[in-house]
Amino acid sequence: MTTTDQPLVHAVNVHKAFHGTDVLKGIDMDVAAGEVVTLLGPSGSGKTTFLRCINQLETIDGGRIWVDGDLMGYAEKGGRLHTLNDKKIAAQRREIGMVFQRFNLFPHMTATENVMEAPVQVKGESKSDARKRAGELLERVGMSDRSHAYPAQLSGGQQQRVAIARALAMQPKLMLFDEPTSALDPELVGEVLNVMRELANDGMTMIVVTHEMSFAREVADRVVFMDGGVVVEQGDPRQVISNPQHARTKSFLQRMQ
Ligand code: ADP
């Protein structure tokens, strides 16, 4: 159980380098249960890498990340840290839903089958239970009427809504969104943001990398501005967006308008 005084995500001094280049230079971040945090920052500032580190799609070079009190990638035994094996890491990853810029649905499966896949294959749920739950989730993202459609028959916005339902099917504690609307035609952005807004209203803990300032302003509890692998500034969205304190935040926000 998550207690109110323990953050759901507790990241301390996270470092990550690629080929000798430091990309994350000591990120500290706590996210409370039920909190919605938007990560803002210029391209290349390390936002995606940080999300991938939380989900262990990247191995961190330094620091620690806990999700719901669970030290990601490690276990303590006899006062020493041990790296977890792949099976344990996969189990930890299942607690976290991730939605990518590209929808990554299985092309040969219908919307329902996409949503059922992980609960059946990974959790061993019965097909009838998984199908029932997929129906509920597709309804939640407004896709009930297209449940038998294949990804190629759906618009980008519809595919992304199915991708959100698919991530929710594993009943994650935390949802990570990596620029979920960046690949969409402008007229399809709103339907995906609406689903995310409802998820936030339902109390889901979310970390969202996005350039959608309206989402940051209206839905997020906090924005975190990153640049050059560090957190430059964070706080209440309206305050940070309308009254940034740091020159780097100011110049980024000016370019976004
Ligand atoms: P952002 O999400 O803020 O745009 P990223 O986390 O995607 O930033 O990237 C940060 C930096 O890390 C960039 O310079 C990028 O080229 C580099 N990078 C990201 N992933 C890799 C990788 N797998 N191999 C090498 N460099 C990478």
UniProtKB/TrEMBL annotation:
Its main location: membrane. Keywords: ATP-binding, Cell membrane, Membrane, Nucleotide-binding, Transport. GO terms for molecular function: ATP binding. It is found in: Cell membrane. InterPro entries: AAA+_ATPase (IPR003593), ABC_ATPase_HisP-typ (IPR030679), ABC_transporter-like_ATP-bd (IPR003439), ABC_transporter-like_CS (IPR017871), MetN_ABC_transporter-like (IPR050086), P-loop_NTPase (IPR027417). It holds the Pfam family ABC_tran. It is a peripheral membrane protein. This is Amino acid ABC transporter ATP-binding protein. Residues 9-253 form the ABC transporter domain.
